[in-house]
Amino acid sequence: MQSIRSATTSIAEALAEKIRTRKARCGVVGLGYVGLPLAVEFAGIGFEVTGLDVQESKVGQINAGRSYVQDVPGDLMSPLVARGKLKATADFSVVSELDTINICVPTPLRKTKDPDMSYVVKACEEIAIHIRPGTLVILESTTYPGTTDELVRPILEREGLIVGQEIFLCFSPERVDPGNPKFNTRNIPKVVGGCTEACTELGVLLYEQALDTVVAVSSTQVAEMVKLLENTFRMINIGLVNEMALMCERMGIDVWEVIDAAASKPFGFMPFYPGPGLGGHCIPIDPFYLSWKSKQAGIEARFIELAGHINGQMPHFVVDKVQNALNQHAKPVNGSHIHLMGVAYKKDIDDVRESPALDIAHLLAQRGARLSYSDPFVPELSLEKETLLAEDPVRMAGEADCVVIITNHTGMPYAEVLEKAALVLDTRNALKGFSSPKIVRL
Ligand SMILES: NC(=O)c1ccc[n+]([C@@H]2O[C@H](COP(=O)([O-])OP(=O)(O)OC[C@H]3O[C@@H](n4cnc5c(N)ncnc54)[C@H](O)[C@@H]3O)[C@@H](O)[C@H]2O)c1
Description:
Shape: elongated
Bound molecules: nicotinamide-adenine-dinucleotide
């Protein structure tokens, strides 16, 4: 009779062979900013890829060869669909035909700032119903250390298949940076850690087929913590530099000049820039996954709480600055027309999730301002009480009492806006090099 060890080895070897020869059928669960680029990358190197998403509209668009993710060009994706290399479905029974499954579903925070694991749990429960021996599952959603082993593993093992023996499980943090022209899914190094050695080896092997660099770590917990360290590092440094901006304002010092000069130091300093507040689905959220988990381990994440507090104040600081600047022109905010220039959470992308523009719009509306906005990437903006359509920034600059630059998209007509505007509050140093009494800098 075959021993368990050799049975495991032969299951793992059969899967490895399928991956090496690109005969493995790959699945990607959650076809958003992370999942769709990954699915296209796998399909592009010859794997047959099935995407799974609960949103029928996304499934329909993929099957029609249309991309809805800015970083995935339609002309790259549609031939893959036409050749049958990429398809999508909302029906999880397809899991029984898959050899590998990457899970890229949302991991937001609840209102209480606790992790909302409901999407991961739901996806894993669906997978567990249909999974068969010889399948590799990799969680990519950002999460707290311990998720893969403590939450995902027991769900996948519900039907009796054992991780490390019949099925294989890894965590690999997604580091995609939407809108980044230099770094994409393929050339960003991929960290992967498995529940067992065999799991890690299979995870590494899969990513090595499609990605330039794969970094293996010793466990799923290490891989989970890597992502949280990266994003917490960023969030805390942004908090620090935002606090610097508040201090510089009090002391009448130009914080932007300070940072540029400090960045001339060739070692031991990395520039971070102040701004109107944190945005997106990572930096404002991920550190709270860590603080939630560390609280359970009896350690208070004080840096995270402090930086969260400072960063959370920035939209209020911006609105106070608008008010002060208008007051100097003998205008109240109430009834003034404020034009928000750029509303995506960072430059050159179309994503408004958690954008500070939403908070600033809300605070200005509360103070009675009339709002308009411009953003070449965002044609429509839903606010609490109204939905706005994007306007022409130069025309609006001529009509508004104040323009607030919230997102510094490349190629915007900053010179014309400045020429037409009565007042510009620049929260991103987009007007670097311009000098005018109309400019108020953060
Ligand atoms: N967007 C980024 O820049 C980025 C970068 C690094 C890491 N991440 C992390 O990656 C994960 C995914 O983020 P995203 O930005 O791609 O999210 P997204 O909202 O763009 O996409 C998630 C997709 O998952 C689908 N989905 C939800 N529940 C599902 C289920 N049960 N089964 C199948 N599909 C389901 C949604 O319909 C959606 O299409 C998150 O954990 C996020 O924190 C995102």
